[in-house]
Amino acid sequence: MKIYAGIDMGGTNLKFGLVNDRGEVLFAHSSPTPPDLHQLLEEIKHIWKILKEKATQPILSIGFGLPGIFNRRSKMIHRSPNYPELNGVPLEPLFSQLVEVPFTIHNDANMAAFGEFCVGAGQGLKSMILLTIGTGVGSGIILEGRLWEGVNGFAGELGHVIVNPEGDPCKCGSRGCLETEVSSEKIVRTYQLFSGSTESLTSEEVYRRAKSGDKAAKKAFHQAGYYLGIGLASAINLLDPEKIILGGGVMKAGDLLLQPTLQELKKRSYLLPYSQCRLESALLGNQAGFIGAALWASAHFHRPK
Ligand SMILES: [Zn+2]
Question: 105: CA distance to ligand 1 center in Å?
């Protein structure tokens, strides 16, 4: 058995663990994401120590999934709206001081997509899109059996495809991106707008209200589903994938969100790719990122290309 490590850095938590060469999780844990870069590097050092203690034999490589767009040419995070401390920092020399095995760095959503592709809902496919909807929208694309990175590593940002040209400003600098229209925060804001409520609440609470018949809450999910359908229709017409895998907290709303999504998707995509593309739930949950990062590094260093 070979052992690989992965760390998935989120805005709130660092999820990390060990997998074997079949992608089975041998160890998984998480810790809060420190607020600044110095503390983050210290925490990674600490996590690496834990991972080595937990491994029954030497770890062969480690993969990092980071929030933000990783420029694979300059080897730096180009822009991280959720963790700006990473912007423009030369991470390779810093990480090489922390871990003594080969490592890779990539975008967190791409790593989650790679994880689902290798050992989750995308196993055995040639093409798929992973979309995770929560406080933000992350996505990654697999085409012809490999992660589609784009020339610079920026590809797969379905969250920043524009679905509403006059929509809210997005952290990326554009407006009306899929992310701004379907995120949990937007669902809350839409609910407040429709209901006239000024109380602070979560999207889970909006969901509970929708389930108990609150019309404004239902409308908020309907609107998010409408824009999600538009975004997915563009993705299907552009890529004709075998599967779209949906994950993230907002997907727990189930049919409340999916019904309007499918309605819009059907209206706006070509019939053949629409009818053959399966929409399914992600399988790896919040472990997808570190599993994918671990397998990405292992594929990079230890498998024939
Ligand atoms: Zn955007």
Answer: 22
Rg (Cα) of the chain, in Å, rounded? 19
Strand intervals (E) in the chain: 3-9, 13-20, 25-32, 59-66, 69-71, 76-79, 103-107, 128-133, 137-143, 146-147, 243-247, 278-281
- Enumerate residues with CB within 5 Å of ligand 1 (an ion): 160, 170, 172, 174, 177
Instruction: Indicate if 269 and 296 belong to the same structural domain.
Output: no
Number of domains in the chain: 2
**CATH number of the domain enclosing 166:** 3.30.420.40
User: What's the CA-to-centroid distance between 89 and ligand 1, angstroms?
Assistant: 22
* Residue-number span of the structural domain to which 99 is assigned: 3-115+286-302
pLDDT digits (tens, 9 = 90+) for 279-293: 999 999 999 999 999
Each residue of 45-90: pLDDT tens digit?
Answer: 999 999 999 999 999 999 999 998 888 888 888 888 888 899 999 9
